[in-house]
Amino acid sequence: MVTVSNRRGRPPRAAVIAIAQAAPRPACSRPWSRLGLAAFAVIVPVLAGSRTDDPSAGTLDVAAWSATLGTGDPPVSTPEADPALVSATGVGDGETAGIEVTIATPGEVRAGTRTPIYVTVRNTSTDTFYWQAGGCRLAAEVTAGPVGGPSAGSSGRVSADPVWDGDPASLSAAITASETGRGMGLAQPESATAWVSLVCTADSKMEAFAPGDELPYSGSAEIRVPPGQLPAAGAYEAAAIFVPYRAPDGYPHQPLDPIETRVGFTVIEDPARGADPVDDVLAAILADGRLTAWLPTTVIPDRPDLVQNYRVGMSWWREAWELWVEPYWGGGMLRVRVDPVNNEVIDVRIHHSNGPPDDEPDASSIPGSQPDQILLVTSTSTTST
Asked: Contact 354/370 with Cβ under 8 angstroms?
């Protein structure tokens, strides 16, 4: 069982605490895809460090950190959203009594922007626990998405199955299908901010979590939203899950009950998104012709038995609509951005690496990665934020 305390200058909009009594989720692999990001947010955590000027360095001071929002990194929501933090703390019981998990985020976030999330795991007991510190060294699994969405705390991708056959006539239906049943976005380290995918392989490196220890990190979430009304009417939540172990040889088969803490926040609408733009946006993309010209280049040479299919996703991000198309049988992904004001295609590029697109602000690049293949960039695209 867990308990919760909520701190804010005014009553919180929502705070949800859930207990994870089911089988834990070991930190073996955390893949995710930008495709289908429309219905959830991707959390980008920071590895534990020694900074003393933010919540990742010891006990979280919500009031003090709220006053600094907008003055440093990472970027937060636009001025129309209230940057004051909301927070929640979950506390374990039984064998995990004394372990606290605190999560905080701004109470309001504008759709299509990046927002910070902070987590601190504390051991206030007199016992020493252990945690799986291998891979990306993420003490907690952090996610964010609409309240009531499926599979909170698990992968945002529905499955590995392709959803589009490449026929322009079925693209709209494929986009709709790609958003059905999506969960919440998984955590990533700051060194992988805005990466298209990240895999953290657990290597059974167990570390002691002694009395008085804290395991902090801070991060950011991309609040990408789908066409149509805001999911859950803008009621979102961030969740953090910590899986402790009693012994250093307990991973992966002898975990203690995970402690999961959730806090609610509100996504503020961006009026520029429009009510239901899918058909107009896709009409502009198909009329541009670069998508249909790119599709034949994704066919696998000399392998007629490998019929190419695609994963697709459409979301509102950085004041424009983005369509991502990922070939199932490898190759670069196509990203198309459409300006909602004139319903004009403003950027088309083939993205080859697991890292971020070259034009993504505040991103962490992969040294030596293949640059994007630019098919179109307009002045509108280069000035968007």
From this structure: no
Burial class of 280 by CB neighbour count within 10 A (0 to 12, 13 to 18, 19+): middle
Alpha carbon distance 250, 257 (integer Å): 13
Q: Could you say which architecture CATH assigns to the domain 6-270?
A: Sandwich (2.60)
Alpha-carbon distances, residue 145 vs 19, 214, 226, 298 (angstroms): 18, 26, 12, 32
- In the 8-state DSSP scheme, what is residue 195? -
* Beta bridge pairs of residue 5: none
The burial class, CB within 10 Å (0-12 / 13-18 / 19+), for 360 is buried
pLDDT digits (tens, 9 = 90+) for 250-308: 999 999 999 999 999 999 999 998 877 899 999 999 999 999 999 999 998 888 889 99
Q: Is 307 helix (H, G, I), strand (E, B) or coil?
A: coil
pLDDT tens for each residue of 180-207:
545 566 656 676 677 777 777 778 899 9
> Which 3 state secondary structure label does DSSP give 233?
helix
Nearest to 142 by CA among 86, 113, 104: 104
Question: What are 203-252's pLDDT values in tens digits?
Answer: 889 999 999 999 988 777 788 888 888 999 999 999 999 999 999 999 99
Coil, strand or helix at 381: helix
Sign of the CA dihedral running 157, 162, 163, 169: positive
297: exposed, middle or buried (C-beta count within 10 Å: 0-12, 13-18, 19+)? exposed
Note if the bond before 74 is cis, omega within 30 degrees.
yes
Of the candidates 380, 105, 119, 350, the one whose C-alpha atom is nearest the C-alpha of residue 242 is: 119
Residues of the chain with CATH 2.60.40.10: 6-270
